[in-house]
Each structure stands twice: as structure tokens, then as C-alpha cells.
Amino acid sequence: MKKYIYILIITTIFTSCTSKDDGNEYTPVALDLEIPEIFSNNIIPPVIPSDNPQTIEGVALGKRLFFDRILSSDQSISCASCHRPQNAFTDDSPTSSGVDGIFGERNSMPIFNLAWNYNERFAWDGKELSLERQALEPVENPIEMHSDWDNVVNILSNHPEYPELFQRAFNTSSITKELTTKAIAQFERTLISANSKFDRYSLGQATLTPQEINGLDVFLREDKGDCFHCHGNPNNPLWTDNDFHNNGLDITFTDLGLGGVTGDPNDNGKFRSPSLRNLAFTAPYMHDGRFATLDEVIDFYSEGLQNSQTIDPLMKSVDEGGVQLSNQDKANLKAFLLTLSDPSFLNNPDFQN
Length: 353
What we know:
Elements: H1 2-22, H2 37-40, H3 56-67, H4 79-82, H5 131-134, H6 137-140, H7 149-157, H8 162-170, H9 177-189, H10 197-202, H11 210-220, H12 228-231, E1 244-245, H13 258-262, E2 271-272, H14 294-303, H15 327-338, H16 343-346
Helix pairs in contact: 3-8, 3-9, 11-15
């Protein structure tokens, strides 16, 4: 990424000297995502919209917008306020509060590896059908940024720097909400996490402890953890199926999840399976942040499942309350799950403000 920044500096200097003199249109510099080896070996290429290709200038603009509080009504919070780099781009609160101090109903989802979300449904309930569209709602949501896009566009248009940044990213200084969210989506697609201990183990670059190996066995066995149906296996380094499931959290639902989006009662209580990557940094867990620790999550799947009309058929042990893991199985499973965390992702300078 750093080499691209150098290219951007050079091209900026060059074009500032030429574009005003000869009227040449500035061409953004294409930026291919750096696909990790563990991904290129196991999953298909990322989804990049044809109308929003990755460019150095677009990513740089998106990063600045992501961390800029200018998008909120009182300029007190930014996207990064609820999606912090140190928490794998979530936060440490069960639900997040917006500019008015009002807390929402859902946990802030971590942001990484979103370019490989092949069903193109985003958010816990799948209501947003692209990464670009997902970035639209928080600005106007009354319990988040509580602003107005017309006002935001006006502020950006009269900013001393943003019109030029949009010009370089999109060949126009006419700022729109669509271009703003396109830039943010470009930056978000660069947030790739693929350097966990288990990634290195899969590439023959690290060794797992006996307890971690036993934990992988618990994870994969249908007669033990039975976790892999929703969260994949070593051949799926995303560690999620990116699908929606009722995993037995509740008997009745105050939050309908996917059902509230589709209107289909068969979807009530279904939420996206989050990636198991970076669990060491993303507590609390579940769509409403109800579990403070990973131990609580494991206990829930072991003994706390609740039956309901839309329970996922994959939750085969719901009648027994869960998969009934021994204390040793629980400890082993936790040890394995923690090998999926990637500290280098939190400290990547390309992802810091």
C-alpha cells in the first residue's frame, strides 16, 4: 500500500503542474487489491463493482471520509467511532450510541474481508444490497450520525480540500452522496485480514498446540461442536458462510432480523453469521452484543439453545439445549477459535487514521 501512496504523491505533483495548463483530464490510478495467499488458494476473486473500480485516489478519499467526523450532524462522530481499527473495526459496546447519545438495538459489525461477501447482502439483517448502499444509511439514521445528505454534500462541496480529492478520484468536483459512499466502499474493500496464526499454520508457517488442534477437531465434528456448517472450515478462510440463520438465541423475537427486511415470517430471527476471525478483539458478541465473553458464546451453543418456529435445521441439538460440550472440549474449542485472530490487522498503518 505504501508504494501506492508514493505513486499518488508523484502523480499529484505532476498533474497539478499539467492539468491546469493543458486541460488534460486526470486519470485515477488503478489499484488492485492485494489478495492474500490463503485466499487465492481457496476462494474465488473478490467482488468489485464495475461502476466502482478500486483506485489509489478513491481509496485515499474513502479512508479520509471514513475517519472524518464531518459526516455527522454535529461533527462529533465518524464511521470509525463505531468501527475502530483497534477492535477489528467494531467497538467494545453491546450496542453503539450516535450523536444524540441514543443506543441502537444492534452490535456494530466488524469490517473486514467484505469484498468476498458474494451474496451482496450487508448488515446483520441483510437489508443493504451492496457495500456502497450500506454506507448511505448511517449518515441519516437518527440514532447514528443523524445528519442529512444534502447538508453533508454542501459541507463537502465547500470544503477547502474535498472538491479536489473528488476530482482526482472520480474526475468530477461535483460531489454527491453516491460518490461519497463509493469512496468509502473502496477503502472498506482494502480492509483485508488474513494473517492469523491459523492462516500461517495452513501455509506451513506456524505450528498449532495440541490443545488448538483438538479444538479444531471439536469445531469440525458433528457429534461435538458442529460449528462448520455456518462458519466454514480450513478450506473457507472467510470463516463464515455469509448467510442468515436463526441460531437459537430466543424463543420469541423483538428484533425480526432478516424477516423484518423480507417480510417473510420464515425469516424471523435470522441474522448474518459473522466471521470467526478476530474474536479476540470483537467482544461483545451476537447481533445485540448479549454475550460479553467468548466463554459465554461457547456455553450458549453447548447448553443454552432456545427453540422457535424458525430455528435453523442446522441447530440439530436444540432439543437437548445444545451440543453438550465437556469443560475440556470448551477449553479446546476456545483455544482454536483464538488462533483465527490477526493482530497485524489491527496495527496495519494503511488502516489507521
